[in-house]
Amino acid sequence: MHTAKFEDLNLSIEIQKAVKDMGFEEATPIQTQSIPVIMEGRDVLGQAQTGTGKTASFAIPIIENVESDSKKIQAVVLCPTRELAIQVAEEFSELLKYKKNVKVIPVYGGQSIDRQFKALKSGVQIIIATPGRLLDHINRGTINLSDVKYIVLDEADEMLDMGFRDDIESIIKSSAKERQTVFFSATIPPAIVQLSKKYLNDPVHIKVIHKELTVPKVKQYYLDIKSVGKLEVLTRLVDIYDPELTLVFCNTKRMVDDLVSHLQARGYPAEGLHGDMKQMMRDRVMSKFRNRTLDILVATDVAARGIDVDEIDAVVNYDMPQDEEYYVHRIGRTARAGREGRAFTFVKGKDFRKLKDIEKYTKTPINKLDVPTEKDVEEVRTKVLQDEVANIIKTDKELNLHDIIIQKLLNEEHSLEDIASALLKLVIGKTAETEAPVMPEKSYGGYDDDDRRDRKKSFGKDRKRDEGRGRRDDKRGDRRDDKRGDRRDDKRGDRRDDRKSDRKSDRSGSDRYSAGSKRIFISIGKNAGIMPKDILGAIAGETGIPGTAVGEISIFDKYSFVNVDEKYSNKVVKVMNDNQIKGNKIFVEFASDKNDKR
């Protein structure tokens, strides 16, 4: 597909420098075709998939043509979600790096409208907005579009699917009649055609569809989950393939919340992303995912539009996508930047018909993968343990300290095989005791009857299944130390200590002031629905300290106490004070007598 160098597109020196700073060497096909046409002032109906660089296709021409000496609003870009609006505004800002006196702001719901008032009063030429909030400003009289020369609909099909058609038409009608209008959409359904005929003037139709709709390096599989619950299959896949970053797709916000709850209950570092979450919480979750302090992100299709992370190893279609193109968008989140990736799709009953439609649409076979068994998981864990033992033997300089114990056992006529077996049993037993599930799975929310029956059958086996998960995490830590420092301890803390602290939470024994640790007061407790794993997860996630540095957690109605390794205690107090746990602002300080009297 034809592409061009940016220097061949007759762009200003400022834009060329900004593009170079962003690391782009040449324009993508959609940019190559769109930029010259939009620069000429033609209306455009552009069709391109997510991730093809279409933002720069309309951003560059707008920036080149906007009048910097005028403080009036000259360009409006409409986006379906807050995440996409922020992402588009950020790309505009990068492209404006060397353009002086041109200002762009995002306008979206969930952000203080007073803050937006102040930004608008200072003068702005370009607005990136969601339809609802923009219309609110228009009705309040705080935004006037009478001088707007450019209107862009980004992800137009998505906005129509979300019910924004009336808002979009109201916005277009309130703008200047002499304007340039551009629609960009992944698909061109009849509704888009109708809208383009109504508001576009002799548009140029630019269509860029990849010859291969799926990413070539994505290994695609489907799993028939009729005999095993979805949650069970998901956890087994994670245990066996051990992906560093996993993106899981659900069709509803309710399903996202329920699945995250179940995964956390089993000790997996997982969080959700969907439209009902506050913006600050979304930003925090995405920051954790990008920084790899979060292994599993569960999201809806709309929320995932703003996700731009190259190192995602696996995508799981927990729910079958509702549209064939959604499948393409989902699995395209992995295998970026030359990496390989895997895509797993859970299929059951009527889903098989949709699977065939997807194969026909993508012209790519999706291979069947047998559902992993408990035995498969145990074999992986056994191999992990073997590797760890072998590694200790090779690298540990202090093994001779234990020779006395071994020699005494040998003198008592125990064989080396018996001694080794007993020690392994002791280790496995302690791991199982530490990692017993903190609560049974909930039986509500989006799971069908088969899922509930499967969970009832398997719950008695949870102890056996969860044995050795800590050993698995040790392996993950060893393999990732080169990349992420002390993440190994974080993992073991996430999956091991939050269960341990659940059992400790109601204890008031004397070990709460254990040597080498500091006791810290946190102004939140049971009344806010807080559990030990919430406190542990917040501390480990926000401070980056190893989970093993967090000791006993005692939770009362209105406040809590947590023991933290002394060398990390100052950092915990500094970072966590005025921070949040589950959306609640907290006050944190070192515990004192006044705290105990609360």
CATH architectural arrangement of the largest domain: 3-Layer(aba) Sandwich
Number of domains: 4
Extended strand count: 20
Unreliable segments (pLDDT under 50, ≥5 consecutive)? 430-514
Count of separate DSSP helical elements: 24
| Whole-number mean pLDDT | 78
Helix vs. strand class: alpha/beta
At the first level of CATH, what is the class of the largest domain?
Alpha Beta
User: Globular, elongated, flat, extended or rod-shaped: what is the shape?
Assistant: globular
Share of β-strand residues: 5-15%
Q: For this structure, what is the CATH homologous superfamily of the largest domain?
A: P-loop containing nucleotide triphosphate hydrolases
- Give the strand order, joined by hyphens, for the main sheet: 3-4-2-5-6-1-7
Distance between the termini: 69 Å
Radius of gyration: 28 Å
The percent of residues in helical segments reads 40-55%
- What is the third-level CATH name, the topology of the largest domain? Rossmann fold
Largest sheet: 7 strands, parallel
